[in-house]
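A note from the maintainers: we've had questions about how concatenated examples are separated. There is no special marker in the raw files; a new sequence line simply starts the next protein. For clarity in this README we add a label.
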Amino acid sequence: METQATGRKLTFEILRFDPHDPKSKPRMVNYELQEAPGMSIFIALTLIRETQDPSLQFDFVCRAGICGSCAMVINGKPMLACRTQTKIFPHPKITLMPMPVFELIGDLSVNTGKVMREISERVKTWIHDKRQDDIDVTRLEETMEPEVADHVYELDRCIECGICLAACGTKRMRDDFLGAVGFMKIARFLADPRDHRSDHDFYELIGNDRGVFGCMSLMGCEDFCPKELPHQEQIAYLRRRMVFDQQK
C-alpha cells in the first residue's frame, strides 16, 4: 500500500562488510538518493552503485521476482529488493542488511546457492523411479491427471530465495533445521505420482526435530514468502503423514 508521495530525499543505511578482507570491519554507511516514481530497492541500489559507490555488493539476476537473488533484510524484514518499492515506507530512512543464516559473501550478498544445494542433496530432490535402472527411451512418458499436475506445479513454484529460512525462528536457533523450503520440496515429490518413495522413506528424511517436528509454527515462512506458498499447510500435512507412517 502506498503511504508516501514520491520525490522525497531517501537515506539508505546499508551494512558494509567484506568477510574476505581482514582489514574490513562491519559498519553502517548512509547513501542519499532522490526518490523517483516506481523506484524499487533494487533500482535504488543500482543507482547507488553506479553513481556513488561501485564497490557495493548485492545480488540480482531477473529483476522480476523470479530468481530470488535479490533477497535481503529491508527495515528488519526479509524481502525481495526488486519487488519492494520505496514508496511503501513512510519514513525516508531505509535500512538494508544481509539475510541471516546464510554465509556472507559481502555487504548485502549472501550464499543462498550453497544452502539450497545442501538441502537438495539432503532431501534427494529428484524423481525416484523403480525403473530408473531399466531405461527405455522408446517408452512414452507416464500421463498425469490435470488436477495432480496443477498441485505439483503449485508446490514447485518456490524460487529458492531463502526468505523463509531468514524469517524462521527455528532455523536461527538450529543450523541443522531443514526449514520450509526443504519441506516444500518434500511435499512436491510426495505429491508426484512418478516418485515411488514410500511414506517411510520420507520419514527417514524429515521425521525428527531437524525436520517437520522441529517447526515451532511461528509463521515467518508463510508471512514473508514472496510467492505466497502454503508453507504451514504443507508442514501440517507432512506431520500427519509422518505420524500415520509410524502408527502403521
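[label: protein 2]
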Amino acid sequence: MPGGIEPCAKSRFKAADVDVNSLATSSREDSRRDASLARQIWLHVRLLSDYFAQYAKVRISYRGDFFISTAASITATIFSLLFVVVLFRRVQSLAGWRFEEVTFLYGFSLIPYGFFNVLSLNLYEFGNTYIMEGKFDRILLRPVSSLFQVLFETFRIESFQEVVTGSCVLIWSAERLGIHWTFSDTVLLLFWAVCGGIIYVSFFLLLSTVSFWFEDRIGVHPPFWNVIAFGRYPLSIYSSYIQFILSWIIPFGFASFYPSVHLLGRAEFVQYARIVPLIAAACLTISITAWNFGTRHYSSTGS
C-alpha cells in the first residue's frame, strides 16, 4: 500500500509544480503588461505636455494675432449671452425656466464646449489638412497613436476663455439662485463637464471619420456645429421630436442640459443625468472604433 501511494503523491507534487510555474509565468506577463501600459501612458502624457508647450510658444509669439483672436472669441461669447438677456426682457420665463436658471445652464454649457473647442481644430480641418493634403501619411509613420497626434498637434488656446466665462456665469447664477456648493457638488460638476467635452469630441471625431471615404475640404461638420447652440437652452422648449434628436441621435443634451437639471435640483429629466457617463463612454467607444476602422482602410494619396 505505501508503495502504491507514493507515485500518486509525486504526480500531485508535479502537477502542483506545474501550476505554480504557470502562475508565476502568468504573473510575470501581467507585470510586464502593466509596466508597458504605464510606460505608454507616461509617454503620451509627456507628449501631450510637449505638444501643448510647443504650440503655446508658437501661438503666443504672434501676440497681436493671439490677442485679436482671444478678443474676438470673448466678444462672440458675450454677444451670445446678451441674446439671453434681451430675450428675458420680453418674457418672464422660458417654458418654466427663470432667467438665472437659463444663465446657469448657459454658463455650464460653455465649460465642456470650451474644453472641446481647445481640441477641435484638427477635427474640423481633418478632411482638408490630413486627407486631401496627404499629411495623414506622416502621422501613420510615427510610433504614436494616430488619433492622439491628430487631436493634440494643434490647440485653440483662446477657447480657454469660454471655460473661464462659463464658470463666472455659473457662479453668478448659482449665487442668485441661492445654491450652496459642497465639495462633492464641485467634483460632480467638473466630472460632468469632462463627460460633456468627451461627448462633443467623440461626436465630431465620428464625423471626421467620414473623410476616410468621402474626400471633401469642408466635411460634414458645419451643420452639426450649429446644433451645439440648441443644448444651451432648456430642451423642454423644443418639441418631443427635437428632444429625442438632441438626446439619442445627436447627444448634445447629455453634454449640458441634463447635468444642469440635476445641479439645479429640478425634478424633470433628472433621471437622465445619471447616465451621462455611460453616454460619454458609449460615444467615445463608437468614435474610436470608427476611427480605427477608417485608418485600416485608409489609402494614401500617393503624392
